[in-house]
Design a protein that fits this description.
The complex is a heterodimer of chains A (232) and B (497).
Chain A (H helix, E strand, L loop, with lengths): L1 E10 L2 E11 L4 E5 L6 H8 L7 E6 L2 E2 L10 E4 L11 H12 L3 H15 L15 H12 L6 E5 L7 H18 L2 E5 L3 H7 L2 E6 L2 E6 L3 H12 L2
Parallel strand pairs in A: 3-8, 3-9, 6-7, 7-8
Antiparallel strand pairs in A: 1-2, 1-4, 4-5, 9-10
Helix pairs in contact in A: 3-4, 3-5, 6-7
Chain B lengths: L1 H14 L3 H37 L4 H23 L7 H4 L6 H11 L4 H22 L1 H31 L3 H17 L5 H11 L5 H23 L26 H16 L1 H13 L2 H5 L3 H4 L3 H16 L1 H8 L9 H5 L4 H24 L7 H26 L21 H5 L1 H18 L2 H17 L1 H14 L1 H9 L3
The chains are: A alpha/beta (232), B mainly alpha (497).
Chain lengths: 232, 497
């Protein structure tokens, strides 16, 4: 689904990310972990063509992301609140997206119904601009928006951060259902090792812009390997 | 898609937390615009009578066609300095399934919504129909007018392109205006009159459609050049970790003997040197030092009597040593709007930040005062009056500016350029100069009138020195005011993301 080839990002002479090769097959839940500054967000930004690569390329569904754009129709993403239009209310924002994705109002309300148990009654119909919501609720808006239009790939940066424990578990349920029902490909970065090992069947460990471990094993084994690394 | 973008742009402006301040600054800009519009309208209406009167009715059009290229070069200059590069919140849209090209088309077309676009149609419509239509026919009038309009639009795209190139090649920012000005100079000294070579083009607009088509093609060419440039660069800003130049490390320890306030004065100096807007304020105030050169050599011709001269020299004395804090101090706390909570959070932080600013203002005033002393070459009185002005600034002036600037401070982005940037400007900034200049003259002028100027200056000096003795009390006034309003100020600073 996603293949990375010889990818490098440099600022001046500083190489902040270097990934010679990485393939993420369809339906995989790909977890990305690493300490601050390891390059997780940079990698996601490169995959989404939000910043230009210094070297190499990223392909989504066989399309070079820097040269084509139609891959955006099958990729949903939420990295940070700048990706939202924070001066809209959540409802207005979803309605704007519907126009962009060319969906019907019916599609939208069906979609949002699925997320109502994540929203917990605090998102829809609320008379507040997104910028005035709490960090957790802003995140919920972003996540629900990323799932709009039945994307084949969903990229989430720190989705569990700022969410209350109930919402974290509900989000996990949503992701696992998507994996099972639609074999959606997920790319998820997180500092919460327990959550990532629970839902992901593959975990890549970044350190200073390099892939230093590519784990494909059972939850317990990956848990052990990660805890060894982070408890050094 | 354009409809969605436009709706969002309107909603964003309407719901902006800074709407209030945008309206006030918008009104200021509107006033200026009105002023310019009246000028343009007056020129437009009287252009053909003026030309008739100046070179005779039969020479009017040939003369105009010779001069047009200079009008356009003037347009190039004002567009180069004032036209903004269109911007867009790419980050909110790039991840959505929208063509980048659509976004860029929208961005480019939106940039045409500018008063600059209207200048040429307004300026030349009356002339086209009063003067050209009767002589050359209505078709010629339209052809002439449309060609001028299209050239103006072409220049819009051309300048966007030049500005884009100059992002990488900074020397263009200087070379480009110099080259344009050189053509004016060459024409002025009758060495090379560009207009004579471009006149056939404008003459041809009256008889043929080719100039119009040629301009259209050139304009489209530059439009697509911009389209390509912008599309290729439609990425999130991507400049971290590149070339960090520390301009201010040389100042470390400069204010260290003043404790926390000294530390904050130093921090403020770093803030000034590391942000675009504050840097510009600082540089502008240095240029203000040169004001003396305009006036002092010709002092005799300005004033009728010695009294006027003294009053005026006092003004220059106050203005030159106060140049920095008059400008920078107006927006006193808005400079720190992005991290005001940091100061709120420190023990005694509010007092310390104001004291730090006071220290910095005094230090820079003293520096400017010392640098201005050589003006004494034009008369020793100048040094005396600059001294009075400096003492007034330290004793009273700085406190006056600081106290008023704390009236409803507004947040602002200090990374933006200063041109037509009214962020942070509110009512206080319009009124701030009145008390600042009123106080010294309220003391000086009556005394100078009823006794003599020396008495006026002496009393002003004595009062200033007394004020310096009460410096801490005066600073306390501002600190207490900010402390009282701290919640409101902090909330208004915090709200923008």
């Amino acid at each position: 689904m996603i293949s990375i080839n010889n990818l490098e990002k440099k600022y001046g002479s500083d190489t902040v990310l270097s990934v010679p090769e990485l393939d993420i097959p369809k339906g995989q839940c790909f977890g990305l972990v690493g300490n601050n500054g390891a390059g997780k967000t940079t990698l996601f930004r490169l995959i989404l063509d939000l910043i230009p690569a210094s070297e190499g390329k990223v392909e989504i569904a066989e399309m070079n992301v820097a040269e084509h754009e139609s891959w955006k129709k099958i990729v949903g993403s939420y990295l940070d609140e700048h990706m939202l239009l924070t001066f809209l209310t959540p409802d207005e924002y979803f309605n704007t997206l519907v126009k962009i994705y060319g969906l019907s109002d019916e599609d939208l309300s069906k979609h949002l119904d699925k997320y109502e148990f994540l929203f917990n009654g605090e998102i829809r119909g609320i008379k507040k601009y997104i910028r005035d919501l709490s960090k957790g609720n802003i995140k919920k808006v972003g996540i629900a928006a990323a799932f709009l239009g039945n994307p084949q790939v969903v990229i989430l940066d720190e989705p569990f951060e700022n969410l209350d424990p109930t919402s974290q578990n509900r989000l996990k349920t949503i992701i696992m259902n998507e994996l099972k029902d639609n074999s959606t490909t997920f790319l998820i970065s997180s500092h919460d090792l327990a959550h990532v090992t629970d839902i992901c069947d593959r975990i890549v460990l970044l350190e200073r812009g390099m892939v230093i471990n590519d784990l494909k094993a059972s939850s317990e084994e990956m848990s052990q390997a990660l805890s060894d690394y982070f408890n050094r | 898609m354009f409809r969605v973008f436009t709706q969002m742009a309107i909603l964003k402006a309407w719901r902006s937390i800074s709407l209030g301040r945008n309206i006030i600054s918008g009104l200021a800009a509107l006033g200026f615009l009105l002023f310019i519009t009246i000028y343009v309208l007056l020129i437009a209406v009287f252009l053909s009578p003026i030309l008739d009167r100046a070179v005779g009715p039969e020479n009017a059009i040939p003369f105009l066609n010779t001069m047009l290229v200079f009008v356009f070069m003037f347009e190039i200059l004002y567009r180069f300095f004032l036209q903004k590069r269109p911007t867009f919140d790419l980050v909110s849209w790039l991840h959505l399934p929208i063509n980048k090209k659509t976004i860029i088309h929208y961005l480019l077309n939106k940039s045409l919504l500018s008063p600059f676009t209207l200048v040429f149609p307004v300026l030349f419509t009356p002339l086209s129909f009063n003067k050209i239509a009767p002589e050359y026919g209505i078709a010629a009038a339209f052809s002439f007018l449309f060609t001028l309009f299209l050239i103006s639009i072409t220049l819009h795209w051309f300048i966007l392109w030049v500005r884009h190139i100059s992002l990488r090649k900074n020397w263009l920012n200087i070379l480009f205006p110099v080259v344009v000005l050189a053509f004016f100079a060459l024409a002025y000294f009758n060495i090379f009159i560009l207009g004579e070579y471009t006149r056939p083009f404008f003459d041809a607009t009256l008889t043929s459609v080719w100039p119009l088509l040629g301009t259209l093609i050139t304009g489209s060419f530059f439009y697509f050049l911009n389209l390509r440039n912008y599309s290729q660069n439609a990425y999130l800003s991507d400049e971290k970790a590149s070339g960090f130049i520390d301009l201010s490390s040389g100042f470390t320890g400069l204010f260290s003997r003043f404790g926390l306030a000294g530390e904050l004065a130093e921090t403020e100096l770093r803030l000034i040197l590391r942000h675009k807007k504050s840097r510009s304020y600082f540089i502008i105030s240095i240029v203000t030092l040169l004001y003396g050169l305009f006036f002092y050599p010709r002092l005799d011709s300005f004033a009728q009597s010695w009294q006027d001269i003294y009053a005026f020299m006092l003004f220059l004395g106050i203005f030159i040593s106060g140049a920095f804090f008059i400008q920078y101090g107006q927006l006193l706390i808005s400079w720190n709007s992005a991290n005001f909570d940091f100061y709120l959070n420190r023990h005694g932080g509010i007092k310390a930040i104001l004291r730090g600013k006071w220290l910095l203002f005094v230090a820079i005033s003293a520096l400017f005062y010392l640098v201005s002393l050589p003006y004494a070459y034009y008369g020793l009185e100048i040094a005396a009056l600059h001294t009075v002005g400096f003492l007034y600034n330290v004793g009273i002036g700085i406190h006056a500016i600081m106290f008023i600037a704390l009236w409803e401070p507004k947040p602002m982005d200090i990374n933006k350029s200063v041109f037509f940037n009214y962020e942070g400007v509110g009512v206080a900034q319009f009124l701030i100069m009145i008390p600042y200049l009123f106080i010294p003259y309220a003391i000086y002028l009556p005394l100078a009138f009823f006794f003599n100027p020396a008495t006026g200056l002496a009393v002003l000096t004595i009062l200033s020195v007394i004020a310096i003795a009460f410096n801490d009390r005066l600073l306390e006034l501002s600190a207490r005011r900010l402390h009282r309003n701290r919640y409101r100020v902090a909330a208004s600073f915090r709200s923008e993301i």
